[in-house]
Amino acid sequence: MTYKNTFLIYILSLSSLCAQNEIDALRYSLFGNYNTAGISALGGAGGLLSHSYNPASLAFFKGNQLLSISLGNTNENTESNYLGNQEIIEKIRPEPFLQNFGYVTQLNQIDNTLEWSPLNIAISYNRKQNFNRRHNIDGYNEQSSIIDQFLENAQGIVPQELYTSEWLAYETYLIDPIYNHDPISGDTIFTGEYSSSAITGQNQNKRLSESGYVNEIEIALSKSYKDFIFLGASIGFTEIQFKQNILYIENEFDQKSGIQYFEFNEERIQGGSGINFKIGAVIKPTSFMRIGYAYHSKTYNELTDLYRRSMITESQAMGYQTQFWDEEYDFELLTPSKSIASLALINSFNRIRVLATFDYEMINYASSQLTSTYPLGHQYYYSFSQENNNIENYYTKTSNKKAGLYLSFNNISIRGGYAIMGSPFKSNDLNNWSQEYVSGGIGYKINNYSFDIGLVQSMESQNEIIYYTSTDDQSTTINRDNNTIILTCSYKF
To answer: Domain 9-133+210-492 has what CATH class?
Structure first.
């Protein structure tokens, strides 16, 4: 399992020579800003409202039992502009998914003289990340080709030792080794160089499609002392499913070109599970103020990666050629811990109840770590030293800021919120991957039932490099808007 480092290219292009790398560490560390409809409408500022953020907030629950369910649906708008050609995809998915499910119960306290509150217990499910997305990149390039990347990476390597992409290019005659003839021995000697019969000037098209999710099932416990300090803890079990398909095509070469057409397919299927824990505390110094802090541990994940690549080439000399490359590998991944500081202000004016809530999250993406499932000395053992160095060098510690405002009168409530998620990259000149969320919602209570609807718009901009050589890179900016609607129904009994 070799690795060729071309600085940040493999992070930005979502493709590398090593199947498991720093991209996986980032993918499973970034989470969406979604929860129940009410929390999501508050900009995700749920540090003092939801045990998913701070398990101590569970102690505020008063009553016997609570059951809630949340359904979500997301529409996506993606725009790219490559070599002057704009591609827009508007995807409306009438495919609702289970965003959140929760059950809370309170254990009766045997001794009512105790100053500790009854123990509250919650079991919940939450979708932390949706990977569903797709985009197209298309343009005519007169200057370069992805073949240039294959050629540069192959130089100096004998054909039998070429790895994955370059091996596929060699096997389908997209690149050709250059040999010299030894007049004395009569042998042909590999010069260490490769060439291609392609003449630059061709259409380029890249189509990316991703699907999957990160789900978490959590068990939380919480108690309070004298209605002043609230303590809680939880354990979480995550499930990861991810599928990625990339189809890259170059065609309509110059008629004099030896290469007429080729396509490069990549498919990755990853799945696994993880475990983490959370602890939190909240104090209520006055009736109108709550201050909280929560710590989310690193998540220990065990993953399996199935990675497939194929290449089809059409040339004047050889006709159609097809070749495949498959590999499967098990690995372990530690994703970063998180700290959340929260503040909430609560007051009433006449019959209107007002809540302002603020969260400040701190997370160090450079603390992720990849390790091999296989022991040292095993034939499949891999140290991941280069990948872990890349994680430390490329990623950084950052913060997420969230704010929400809640107004309620009679049985109606109105919510609004805003969140900005910091970029995980050290250098924003390379890729500013920050995200913004604007949200709002409305709720209605009748008897023991509550109905809430939340609308969340997320906006992000990513720089995607299609291919890279030491003298050139081809890239484009992907702008993506997601509009998510979440509906929550709760019953308290």
So the answer is: mainly beta
